[in-house]
Write a structure and sequence with these properties.
single chain; four-stranded antiparallel β-sheet; mainly beta; 93 residues
């Protein structure tokens, strides 16, 4: 069964699922700035638009565009900016 998650007063919404590849969420971030925490390794893929990410311990921001992916380590916090509503896929490892 699917589970719907809402964060930041509904500005980020995702639907969680389990498949043969493991746990995943598919969601949308409204334009804005967010800080997320991880409990597992996360592999994020931008479906359309772009996400600008600041990884933990880094001062530089990096932008990922349509179909690009990035990995976030377990048990860290990272920052995200998006200038338009942006859908994503997140795989949990």
């Amino acid at each position: 069964m699917f589970k719907v998650n809402e964060y930041f007063n509904g500005e980020v919404v995702s639907m969680a699922l389990e498949s043969a590849e493991g746990k995943a969420t598919v969601g949308v971030m409204a334009a804005g700035e967010y800080e997320f925490g991880t409990s597992t390794v996360e592999i994020m893929t931008v479906i359309s638009g772009a996400l600008t990410i600041q990884q933990p311990g880094e001062t530089e921001w990096k932008t990922y565009k349509k179909f690009e992916s990035f990995v976030v380590a377990k048990d860290v916090k990272y920052k995200v900016k998006c200038s338009e509503d942006t859908p994503y896929l997140c795989l949990y490892k």
